[in-house]
Amino acid sequence: MANLLWLQGGACSGNTMSFLNAEEPTVVELVTDFGVNILWHPSLGLEIGEQVSDLMNDLIAGKIPLDILVYEGSIIEGPNKTGTMNYFADRPMKDWVKELCGVAAYVVAIGDCATWGGIPAVPPNPSESTGMQFHKRHIGGFLGAGYKSKGGLPVINIPGCPAHPDWVTQILVAISTGRVKDVLLDEFNRPKTFFTDFVQTGCPNAISFSQKVDGHFGKRGGCLFYEVGCRGPMTRASCNRILWNRQSSKTRANHPCLGCTEPGFPHHDLVKGSVFKTLHYLGFLPRDVPAGTSKLAYYTRAGFEKAMGTVEAVTGTNKVHFETSK
Ligand code: SF4
Ligand code: SF4
C-alpha cells in the first residue's frame, strides 16, 4: 500500500479534473487494484480544518509514512517570499510543502504550474509563483536543483495544461508497485515514456507537414504548422499515441498543439501577440525533404498536391483520404 497526499497551490483544479477522468487505470482502480491509499485530496477528501493539519503534522513527524506527495499548482512565494498569499491550514502552503517534501518517498508535480510555474509565473508574476524544481526552463524552482526525495529521485514532472490523466495514474502505479526507479527521466525530469516522441508522432496531418499543405482550425486535412502555428513538431508529448479520452487529440480535431508540455508554455508570441505562434513569417522554416527525394521532385509534388486540393494521410494501418480546404 502506498500512502498518497495531494495538495494544491496556485491552480485552477484542471489537473484534478483530468485525474478524475483517467481511464488506464482509473482513479478507482488505483485504489482497488494498485494499492494507492489516498490520505487526502482537496477535492475528494472528507476531512476539513484541523483534521487535515493534524494529518500533515503526523506525516511530517513520521507517525504516518508519506509514500507519494502529489502537488498541483504553482508554489506561491509572494508577497516578498513570505508565501502568505497562499495560506493553507494556518500556514503558507509553501512551508507545508517544504516540510512534506523532506519526508516524502516520492514527489510528483502535476501540470505546468507545479512543474515550471505555468501561467501564474508569466511576467510580471505578481504572486511570485514558481515550479517545484524548475522555474520555466531553469532548474531550481522552489526546492532547488539538488533536491531529491527520500526515494532518491528529483521531483517527477508530469507537465501539461492539464496533464493527460493516464500519464498521472500510470506514474502513480509505477510508484505503488515499486517500479518507479526503472522510469527514465529526461532533462526536465519528465518520464521519457510519455515525453520522448513529439506530438507530431501519430498526427494524421504529418504527411501534409512534409508536403507543405496548409490546414486551418477545425477543418480536416492539411497541417496546422504553417498558418496557425501548431507546435507539434517541437513539443514532446504522447498526445497522438495515448489519445485523450481514448478518442482523439488536439491535432486530430484540427486544433494546433499549443506546446503545453514544454517549460516555455504559454509560448506567447511577442511579434504577433498570440499564443498561436507561427514561424512562417520568420522565413527560415526547416523545409524538410523526404529521404530519397530531390528538392525539385519534392516541391513539384507538393505543389501538385496543393493545386489538386487533396492529400492522403496514413495513420497506422488506416489509410485516410482528406479533402483539404482551399
Ligand atoms: S498538425 Fe501539427 S502535429 Fe500535425 S503534422 Fe502538422 S505540425 Fe505536425
Ligand atoms: S496536443 Fe499539445 S497542447 Fe494539446 S495537450 Fe498535447 S502537448 Fe498539450
From the structure above, extract its key features:
326 residues; alpha/beta; Rossmann fold; Cytochrome-c3 Hydrogenase, Chain A, domain 2; 2 domains; 5-stranded parallel beta sheet; two-stranded antiparallel ribbon; 10 helices; 15% strand; disordered C terminus; binds iron/sulfur cluster
Q: What is the CATH C-level name of the largest domain?
A: Alpha Beta
The separation of the N and C termini measures: 57 Å
Strand order of the largest sheet: 2-1-3-7-11
Number of helices: 10
The pLDDT mean sits at 87
Number of domain units: 2
Q: What's the helix-strand series?
A: EHHEHEEEEHEHEEEEHHHHHEE
Spans of at least 5 consecutive residues with low confidence:
276-291, 310-326
Largest sheet, if any? Answer: 5 strands, parallel
CATH-defined fold name of the largest domain: Rossmann fold
CATH second-level architecture of the largest domain: 3-Layer(aba) Sandwich
Structural class: alpha/beta
What kind of assembly state do the chains in view correspond to? single chain
Radius of gyration: 22 Å
Compact overview of the structure:
With 326 residues, this protein is α/β, with parallel strands linked by helices. The protein contains 10 helices and 13 strands.
In words, what does this structure look like?
By secondary structure, this protein is an alpha/beta fold. The chain folds into two domains: 2-193, NADH:ubiquinone oxidoreductase-like, 20kDa subunit (Rossmann fold, 3-Layer(aba) Sandwich); 206-323, Cytochrome-c3 Hydrogenase, Chain A, domain 2, CATH 4.10.480. Helices cover 25% and strands 15% of the residues. It has ten helices and 13 strands. The protein has helices at residues 14-20, 27-32, 50-60, 93-103, 111-116, 165-176, 192-195, 206-211, 225-228, 295-308, and strands at residues 2-8, 36-40, 68-72, 75-76, 87-88, 91-92, 106-110, 129-130, 134-135, 138-139, 156-158, 310-315, 318-323. Strands 2-1-3-7-11 form a five-stranded parallel sheet. The protein has a two-stranded antiparallel ribbon with strand order 4-8. Strands 5-6 form a two-stranded antiparallel ribbon. Strand 12 and strand 13 (318-323) form a beta hairpin. Helix 1 (14-20) crosses helix 6. The radius of gyration is 22 Å and the shape is elongated. The model is unreliable at 276-291 and 310-326 (pLDDT under 50). Bound molecules: iron/sulfur cluster (2 copies). One iron/sulfur cluster binds at residues 160, 199, 235, 237, 239, 249-250, 257-261.
